């Protein structure tokens, strides 16, 4: 067996015992991921591939398996099958779900397949919009539009932290002055009547798996979830399409993908109204991203996080700068 020295003994022993009790015969085990926010071990077994995932003990990320189970059992969503959960060790076992959609699209870009993923994810969002309290009881953050202005003000008050992330005093002053503007944007976005629901910051094609035998799309990695405006996580998917698949903002492929993003809400407003709401959500999205990045950072070992991303620019600074630029119409400070 491959060495697993960097994985704590307790979750490994639990996983081996649980799989044995369920008549899985382990043939090989291998560490496939170790980061400040999760450790993943892959087990090759007599009944297929199984993954063990462990998250930090004090992190909101540890509620992921309960979210997945709820989505599967109550909403019949295409999510991984959770075999077992160990709350004490903050880990769970799940079956392998296939190959990442991104890897398939990198080989041969198929916008129809990406549109299918977007539409199915939107359907999951719509199915959960009337059950917000159920998810909040699990400990999911509440980042609805009426909560975002207060979260914005709380974030921009963390002056020392934001300066350490690379923001200048001039930019911090701009963010202070834009507080009322941001609150007004949230209020305006709420008037379009798009129900807020479950969503996650990391929705993109690399977190969609394709079952090679059934061609079913499986939506995974439900760790960075919150109750949000549904258009926010769809913005993430579009941005990742630009980054990884050479989609250009405003080109025909981008426009078709955006139309798909709006498809599940077509009965709630006119096409023009939905497009206007989506454009406004794109501006507010920058602050949602800041909130998501900050929540993620403080949920793990911050020193380990910064060491892991030592060569990457601060996402918090990038998104705040993006918001300032959009709010000022591209004019320099």
Tell me the distance between the termini.
Answer: 58 Å
Instruction: Enumerate the spans where pLDDT stays under 50 for 5 or more consecutive residues.
Output: 1-5
> The biggest beta sheet, please?
5 strands, antiparallel
Share in β-strands: 5-15%
Number of helices: 14
Helicity level, as a percent range? 40-55%
Q: What overall form do the CA principal axes indicate?
A: globular
Cα-based radius of gyration, to the nearest Å = 21 Å
What's the average pLDDT?
94
Structural class: alpha+beta
Q: What is the spatial order of strands in the main beta sheet?
A: 1-2-3-5-4
Q: Summarize the helix and strand pattern as letters.
A: HEEEHEEEHHHHHHHEEEEHHHHH
Count of extended strands: 10
């Amino acid at each position: 067996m491959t060495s697993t020295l960097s994985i704590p003994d307790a979750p490994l022993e639990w996983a081996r015992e649980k799989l044995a009790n369920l008549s899985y015969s382990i043939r090989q085990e291998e560490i496939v991921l170790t980061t400040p926010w999760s450790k993943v071990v892959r087990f090759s077994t007599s009944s297929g591939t199984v993954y063990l995932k462990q998250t930090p003990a004090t992190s909101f990320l540890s509620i992921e398996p309960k979210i997945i189970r709820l989505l599967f059992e109550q909403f019949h969503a295409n999510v991984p099958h959770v075999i077992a959960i160990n709350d004490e060790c903050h880990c769970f076992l799940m079956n392998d779900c296939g190959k990442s959609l991104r890897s398939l699209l990198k080989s041969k870009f198929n916008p129809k397949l990406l549109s299918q993923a977007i539409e199915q994810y939107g359907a999951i969002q719509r199915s959960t919009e009337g059950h917000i309290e159920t998810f909040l009881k699990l400990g999911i953050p509440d980042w609805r539009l009426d909560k975002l202005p207060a979260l914005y003000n709380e974030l921009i008050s963390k002056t020392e932290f934001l300066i350490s992330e690379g923001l200048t005093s001039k930019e911090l002053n701009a963010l202070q002055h834009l507080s009322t503007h941001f609150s007004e944007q949230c209020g305006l976005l709420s008037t379009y009547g798009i129900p807020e629901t479950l969503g996650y910051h990391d929705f993109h094609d690399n977190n969609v798996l394709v079952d090679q035998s059934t061609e079913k799309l499986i939506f995974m990695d439900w760790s960075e979830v919150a109750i949000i405006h549904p258009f926010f996580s769809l913005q993430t998917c579009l941005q990742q399409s630009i980054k990884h698949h050479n989609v250009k903002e405003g080109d025909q492929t981008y426009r078709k993908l955006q139309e798909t993003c709006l498809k599940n809400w077509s009965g709630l407003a006119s096409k023009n109204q939905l497009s206007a709401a989506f454009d406004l959500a794109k501006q507010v999205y920058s602050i949602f991203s800041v909130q998501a990045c900050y929540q993620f950072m403080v949920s793990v070992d911050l020193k380990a996080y910064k060491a892991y991303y030592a060569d990457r620019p601060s996402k918090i600074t990038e998104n705040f700068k993006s918001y300032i630029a959009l709010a000022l119409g591209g004019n320099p400070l």
